[in-house]
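Predict both folds.
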Amino acid sequence: MTICLQFITIMIVYLFGSSSWAQDLVKVPVQIPAITPAVTAFAIARDRGYYRQEGLDVQLIVMPSAVGTQALLGGNVKFSTGGGAGLLPILRGAPMRFMFTTFSRPMFWLYARPELRSVESLKGRKVGVSSIGSGPDSLLRELLKKHGLDGARDVVVLPVGGGTARYFALQAGSVDAAMLSIPANLMAQDAGFRQLVSFIEQEWIELQGTINVTDQVLIAEGPLVEKFIRATLKGFIHFRDLRAQSIALLGKFLRTSEDATAKIYELMRPSLTQDGIVSEEIQAKSLEHVIERAGLKTPPRLERIFDYSLAVKVRNELRARGWKP
């Protein structure tokens, strides 16, 4: 058994109960980077039975985005949802592509110890990210660059884990600042840490809650890919259109109070894409902060990286049927 497969076996998480009864369903292992709002559409699709309606027993498996990409390329998972972290491997030649995107704005916040008042004050300090090469890592390095700092020379960038792990590293003093996602940003705010940057309010584009698939699976198992996208889109529409029900499901998923979950929902809502599909303009912008790291002067053609054709197809079908969650 490979190390990657061992990791998958250890970290597998069955969300919202066991699916051991579903012996007639096709098992579909799917990587998620953490128990994070970015993967809300997948959690809702699983909880509401949309995957089962497509004959799929979807297993949401927690693993860091970089490991998830390795698992995807190695065939240990069918899909990964790691978002912007998948761009760098593709730009370096990995045979996979983006098929669906839940969010297009970076839902990250840079929090620091109270005495640190600016991005410039991070010089010589330690900043926590989920993993090297992840979306938060790329955004941080671009931010540092805009403020005259080099992420490899002036700041110590440390991989400290996904979800709330970065907040706890900040709380423990293991890092001086951290790139936080929901709900860790709210925890940091309540604990008195200083918000240096709200990325969701910036002009950056960061793709999150994506469906990434290898070219091999897309060619060999196209019908399965279409079913997975259709069910995920239903979860997306449920989240977008049914506020109260989605807040209840999101609170169950994140294990947060109703009040906190309502705040989280409102923070997330503006970042939603249009039916899981992003325009070519947004596709191009999503590449801007990773092109240099990939060692490229110009990116490959967008169609080599993004393929929303199945998302468009199932969206049109659902609209034609008048489907509602």
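Second protein follows, with its predicted structure tokens after the sequence.
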Amino acid sequence: MLEETQDAEAIIERVAALDIGKAELMCCIRISADSTGGKRQQEVKPYSTMTRSLLRLADRLAELEVARVVMEATSDYWKPVFYLLEAHGFEVWLVNARDVKHLPGRPKTDTLDAIWLCKVAERQMIRPSFVPPPPIRRLRDLTRYRIDLVNARGAEKNRVEKLLEDACIKLSVVASDIFGVSGRDMMSALTAGERDPKVLAQLARSRMRTKITLLEEAFTGHFTDHHAFLLTRMLTRVDAINADIAAIDTRINEVIAPFASAVARLDDIPGIGPTAAAVIIAEIGIDMTRFPTPGHLVSWARFAPGVKESAGRKKGNAATGHGNRYLARVLGEAAVGAARTNTFLGERYRRIAKRRGKKRALVAVGRSILVIVWHLLADPDSTFHDLGPGFHNTRTATDRQRRNHVRQLEALGYTVSLEPAA
């Protein structure tokens, strides 16, 4: 039986495609011809990626009344072109290069790539990638740079620990965080020339003073002037990164001020704080019309398992794939934090971890957090309400017990009809 579908390959009358490189881009423009017969007119021309050349490109596109401009996401070279054309009022699409498949045996050149992309775009066989509006892009630049700085600081701290191990200084064995107040004072004393283990151990504060004897043993090593020189440079670098992170945090608070209500609502979710909320908003924005349903957002973020079926059989557990790594990181950290709480999300993690393992449980909780985020951002008047750790026991377990009892009675030959008690 034949069924009607909603697939309509309407040809876009005026479309342009850009194959972008660092110094030059190839532009292919295809428009409908005046004559009948469905013929198309085509123009392929290179342009420099300098601003003046891009302005000439924008004028040419406006002259030909191009309705849509499509480009591949090539490194960061697409950004100046995208932003300039967007500012001139064009409908600009950024597409994933993997979605534009090259036919086997077809030669590959910049000209042919631009023509092929234009032909695919005019038949609407590709979909645009998510590019947030300018305010969110500015916030994203800040949050991503902050993450890079935190990674750089972590790498520098690891170098400090390796240097102390090279000098047989076992501070990391005694102190859980060598960059705490006590550990930092001790390392500063080392760089200043102090080598006496007893003097260094007396710099301990608070609970660290209960480990004076262990600290004296830890500082008995061969810390030389060579180690002191390197440690001074490393500590200076850590201090500089800390100052940069503080400045970035201040700037993030200023940029995210218009979205303060959204941050406050996301902050109520277990495992998410103001910093994580800022990263989530920077990666997905606050306009959820771009993602019609929570499932669209989850699929875009690659927090939903893929479908892998052949010959009518599902082949194992399909992986989720690789999505936005910045979003995946913050959701993973939020899931770890939520797993330690006595909440619905914490209990969900523990239930799944028993059956499927900790890694799958973290992905499942991260997906649940993302669904909650979608609902909170889609409805500005909504607030988060925790279902509590006993939600599954009071509902899911009851349903399962009822089904099991009914099956047991049916297995004995009874016909079971259930009616709720008054």
